[in-house]
Structures
1.
Amino acid sequence: MSGILYLCATPIGNLEDITFRVVRTLKEVDLIAAEDTRHSIKLLNHFEIKTPMTSYHEFNKVEKAHYLVEQLKQGYNVACITDAGTPGISDPGEELVRQCLEAGIQVTSLPGPAACITALTMSGLGTRRFCFEAFLPSDKKEKQQILEELKRETRTIILYEAPHRLLKTLTELAEALGNRRVTIARELTKKHETVFATRLEEAISYYNENEPKGECVVIIEGKSFEEIREEEIQSWEALTIEEHMELYLKKGVDQKEAMKLVAKDRGISKRDVYKVIRC
Ligand code: SAM
């Protein structure tokens, strides 16, 4: 019988945020794969967990996952923890899960803190529909591509950022998305937790005067549907009625519906549209 891989969410600051189940599981498994063993030993000592640890991090994740899969195949139960939060969310947990599933190993995830969800819920921005972009890529071209995609994103956008790159990222976001509403959630669950709900330009001015400190999550409002609609109107104003029809047909709208939409956009009757396209 193979062992089970337990993904164990650990606190993102406040140690009281660990669950009973995570503490029990960490005590019961045979081995804990930790992102930084020197960091996690403090957590283990605090909860009197004596299970052996092995390091599993970004730079050994592929080979170390092979090793952990072998241990699991031999019947040992393994827990995976990272420096903070839910393993697999912007940390090496993802690779281990992939390899375990490929090897037919059972994987389970013990829910708990994740900075992205904690920040979203207190952001004051829409929580019904959201997307998580994690850290923007450092590669310039890739980052530009993502920013281009985000321009049309209507869901609330969640980003992770390190304090020393915060100002640069906010500036790039303002250039790409305009002066959107933004919430910067810092030091979550810790003594100096702050939630700064503002707009991108105000945030940039603020951080030009005050050096960003502490871990943070940046949450930006998505593009409004009205804005998209206005842009579409502006984009068809230069078009002929035929070209305007084509715009909707290309989107997969049928002929009848396209006529209705073109008429509505231009404030004319469907018959007027029909007369033009029939000729
Ligand atoms: N696995 C983690 C999770 O579930 O949230 C995320 C790991 S990622 C390597 C680290 C990033 O998460 C930080 O750069 C920061 O953006 C965010 N983060 C983690 N802890 C935080 C906290 N207490 N307050 C604000 N942001 C935090």
2.
Amino acid sequence: MLNEFDLINRYFADRTLTRADVVTGIGDDAAVIALPVEQKLVVAVDTLVCGVHFSNDASPYDIGYKALAVNLSDFAAMAAVPTWMTLSLTLPQCSESWLKDFSEGLLALAEEFSIELVGGDTTRGPLSVTVQLMGVQSKDEASVLRSGARPGDLVYVTGCLGDAGLGLLVSQGILPVNKVFDSAVQRLHRPRARVEFGQALSGLATAGIDVSDGFLADLGHIIEASHVGARLNLDVIPLSHAYHYLETAGLAHLLVKEEAELSLAPSLKFALSAGDDYELCFTIPPEQQEQLDAVAASMECMITPVGTIETGASMVGVDVLGKEIQLAKRGYQHF
Ligand code: ADP
Ligand code: MG
């Protein structure tokens, strides 16, 4: 039977890449890192709890991957560069096959971004995974905050909205298993944070956030922090092929629980409020649009202008006929 220290060495210390700026990594009472003087330190932390963020039968590889991916998405939103992380792991038992797959998922993604695992904590209890991600940003480079949106700015979103939500419905058996939903399911389990594109938004975007709780809720955070309102063009919200399939197959009604008082089409309402997308929502002044388009094209990052920031405090959607719909800033909340 593996003891706690063998476990840490075998699955984490011996498998992480090592960076030159880490003076002392896993194995002592704390990690010691040599901070470059011209950089600011950026820190984010996220916890995934079994039964809340992933199901009992989730693949350990995916759990490890996602525990880092959700933090990378926060870094993308801030335009920061990830470099080091710690891992707090609570396990009901010591399963070597589980640990092997989990550490592979976590450390393979870490390697892609040259992140060293510098320490952590291992305890027994209900399965829960906390990754704390640390990184840097040049002192003369601006973080992209939630509070910088100004009336007249354009609202953009990367990629398509609501796919991870569809993936969740497939895994819950509410939507049928079908090839057309494969990429949505993949999106749920292995989200790709927009790290490089997020970094490129420093100095371009006036505000930004990652879409983790649902687009309306997250744009709602920008609006509140910036003391502004927003107007969205509902007919240009980017939806994937899976949504078009749901419409043509007559399955869109499966996306909403109650049919009553629907001011939006079921699929659009779902896509605007489903969580776990890990796309970026950001605002830019219109005069930066050309430069933004060039950056997005060079990085092959799909972006869509979906609306504008205005004075006030409300979010209004405008449908294809010009009708205005008041939008609630609600998304997933634990409490
Ligand atoms: P302490 O009791 O001093 O907090 P621990 O016994 O908890 O130290 O951990 C021993 C070493 O292993 C520390 O350097 C700690 O950062 C590291 N560590 C513990 N658990 C993990 C883990 N899951 N992943 C990475 N490093 C870990
Ligand atoms: Mg400890």
